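input
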Amino acid sequence: MQPLRITVRSLAVVLLVVMGLPLGWTVVTGDFFMTVTGRSMSPTYEIGDVLLVRQPVGDELDQVGAIVVVKFNDDPDDAAQYVHRVVEPTADGAWLQGDNNETRDPRPVRPEAVLGTPRLAMTGPVATAFDLSQNPVGRVVLAAAALTLLLVPVRRSAATPPGATPPTAPAPAPATEDPTADASRGEPALTTGR
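output
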């Protein structure tokens, strides 16, 4: 297989993996992705950072300094969530505070409000690229690019059929005797046929 063909096919596979890996990860682990939309956790997390959030195990609110992702309110239809740090555990939950906030949150949270803890944070261009690859338009563009790379044939040279070796330069013509040469004047007696 030609190096160009291998490169094009490899790029198509990478695009498909970029599309499918996050979905596969969430299905296998139960983790989810969250994009930071506020400045309350700056400089730890900035607007646009993408967090990979692992499922809670139950003790997240017991550890001062732990970063947790929680539901904004108790409404099950409201998907609003935020990320803050535990500053003071209580008997039935904990007080949270954003790293960039002067005071703690106005009310403590209970364990059932905890959605998880950040496992990984993607920042800068990586976070932007991830966000683009996960929205519907980005997925369509990635899928179209991958399919194009997989289905459109990579052109071969017209002079070289598949499996054949490319032609080499012609060999020089053999030397022949020149009947018009005059050895007495120092002219060569052989020519190359050109």
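quick obs: Strands lie at 32-35, 50-54, 67-71, 81-90, 93-97, 114-122, 176-177, 190-191.
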